[in-house]
Amino acid sequence: MRYFVNTRLKTLFAPVLFATGMCSVSVTLANQPLPQNELFQAEASRLAQSLSREDKLKLVFGYFGNDYYNWGNKKQTPKHPESIPQSAGYVEGLPNAKIPALFETDAGIGVASQPGPTPRLATALPSGLAIAATWDPDLAYEGGRMIGEEAKSFGFNVMLAGAANLIREPLNGRNFEYASEDPLLTGVMVGAQIKGIQSNKIISTLKHFALNAQETNRASLNAVIDEVAFRESDLLAFQIALEEGKPASVMCSYNKVNGQYACESDFLLNRILKQEWGFKGFVMSDWGATHSTIPAALNGLDQESAGDAFDLVPYFSYALKEAVNQQWVPETRLTDMAQRIIYAMLTTGVLPQSTAQLPPLDINKNELISRKAATESMVLLKNDNKVLPLSNQIKQILVVGGHADRGVLSGGGSSKVYPRGGIAVEGLTPTDWPGPVIFFPSSPVEALKKRLPTTHIRFMQSGTNEELTEAAKSSDIVVVFATQWIGEDNDALSLDLPDNQNAVIQTLSAANKKVIVVLETGGAVAMPWLNQVSGVLAAWYPGTQGGEAIADILSGKANPSGRLPISFPKSLNQMPRPQIIGDRKNGNLQPEVIYHEGKYVGYKWFQKNAEAPLFPFGFGLSYSEFHYITSPTQSQNQDCTLSFNVKNTGRVEGSDVVQLYTRVPTVSGAIEYRLVGWKKIHLKPNQYKSFDISADKRLLRQFNAESQQWKTLERPVALYWGKHSEETVKTPISCQ
Ligand code: BGC
Q1: Centre of ligand 1 from the C-alpha of residue 642, in Å
Q2: What percentage of residues in the chain have a pLDDT greater than 90?
Q3: Phi and psi for 421 in degrees, rounded to 5?
Q4: Considering the entire predicted model, what is its pTM?
Q5: What is the pLDDT of residues 449-495, one digit of tens each?
Q6: Which of 120, 437, 465, 624 could be stapled to 428 by a disulfide with Cβ–Cβ 3.0 to 4.6 Å?
Q7: Dihedral-angle region of residue 723 (phi above 0 means left; psi in -120 to 50 means alpha; beta otherwise)
Q8: Strands 256-257 and 260-261, how do they pair?
Q9: pLDDT on residue 583
Q10: Separation of 288 CA from ligand 1 center, angstroms?
Q11: Closest atom of ligand 1 relative to the 207 alpha carbon
Q12: Which three-class secondary structure state does DSSP give residue 316?
């Protein structure tokens, strides 16, 4: 084959071509330039083929970036000497071929650190779930760009971020890392974050592929699901994230899917990801998720992560060498693995390695990005008698709990970011994995004091019933901060707020009619006190500027515009599984979860069962009112597009999120609700805007198991618009 290389690309590849002595074989003119990705592929292929077996084996084996004791094989492994201290991973480079080493860091909210004495200090965004609650892909991109920039400044060129698992279990300890219960919202928001990260010329990693919906027994769990349901739910979220974000790597998950470990699943890795979706980058395993050499290599795993430390044996080290020597794994497959890794480096710009000096980080700017994301993510769930925003005429505010005098909570596990300014509350348990529990030093109380300088604000972390009652009675308003710490490897035990926080809220609301609850949680929680309080704000885990953002919303400096990316159930009895299956204490069990709800995840489940959640998917209040003046009409010549006219009739500027849904009839007779599009619009008071929303055609299809093809719907379906999933209005528009 002959390829055309334009001058820019020639310059780009020059070092690589020279290093491999391939200048002469490369590329001569033809009439048509090849698309850039094909050029990268051709180049990756040439490079991979020029490597020795030893060199290729180096690229497919990752090391841990921290000292590690493996309880499975009782082995202590020191960190790889070249790795960045307290980091997630390291893959050796090939200096002779000018292929750089890979320096890997977690994760979705910012540059994380593994345990140790000197963690990196970085800017943390609000949780992944919070970012999805903004319903603003531009913000997700900007957040990704910012954390990617910080990762690069610490010397990393791989960020293990882009978590697209659908939220199926309200108790899952990693819900805060994920985006939503909906495939479109998840795919678009995670895809935007990945794009932002990779705009720094580093690799981003879509994870955890797939159906890693709970942490309990995650390493042995068999997740069972019907193929059509899988395609139209979790796989669709990954597919959209892949299309939108074009991540250069994908991380396979710990669990089994339909009996096969995800990291050696021919169905997931070869058939779907690589063949059907055309993924040309590389698949890395989650840390400790490789279980074999030959099946894993043949079924699509391209790189074993932290194979020196986490897996029972280093499967892709000497064992893979032997397998290739014996031709149990063909040399061509090893070359393909190396090619995919090199391709990922080329498409992102990790290769050729830049020697340019990075501009210094603008920390203040980065903190402002985090603050904006937090502000936009907060969901006002209840606001009786406009108790919020807090007026500066209020004389006495009592603030209770949540260490709100010191900071805001974040989630546990490998994604933990250590903030500049230190951990705000020391000594909370667990202090070890998946802890320590980290409060970011951004105090809502201090921030509120700045915004309400003439109000007396008193803080109590806790108190006896009598003390709380008395303090609440002598205050005009009570703001309670309620926290729920969850983390990787640590599913929540119940939907209730932990400790005695529900009782505290009940005591306070018995003593004062104006109680506002601010929730800092990893996901949904039950609210047995809902009828007794006046206001509820879901602030999620709000990142390193969380206190400022909460105070902005409470004081009315900012108008809440977040919308729920998940349904809040009234109780676990409304869910497909009222309990997490498996035994938290015994990792050796072989539990199986049958996802009988299939594609009916979240709001789809509630609607199928005609159950009302506590708060529906898409819900959120505002301090202003948005009046939709005309009913939507189909704009001319634009299929599946609705035109809207809206006016902000409130007194403050703010944003509204208009959502489009459809209802798809299914073979079983059930109707499936689907989010097919949305728009977030910002309006000043009295401002009027016209705008369009189009239904995303990727949602107007059904997967046919027999033909193994996506098919357009048999008949056009009506579009519905609304402000959340439980209250939608049928439009005159149908589309197919
Ligand atoms: C997590 C991954 C993470 C990896 C590296 C694993 O325990 O599941 O999400 O990227 O560790 O820290």
Answers
A1: 42
A2: 87
A3: 95, -5
A4: 0.95
A5: 999 999 999 999 999 999 999 999 999 999 999 999 999 999 999 99
A6: 437
A7: alpha
A8: antiparallel
A9: 79
A10: 9
A11: 9
A12: coil
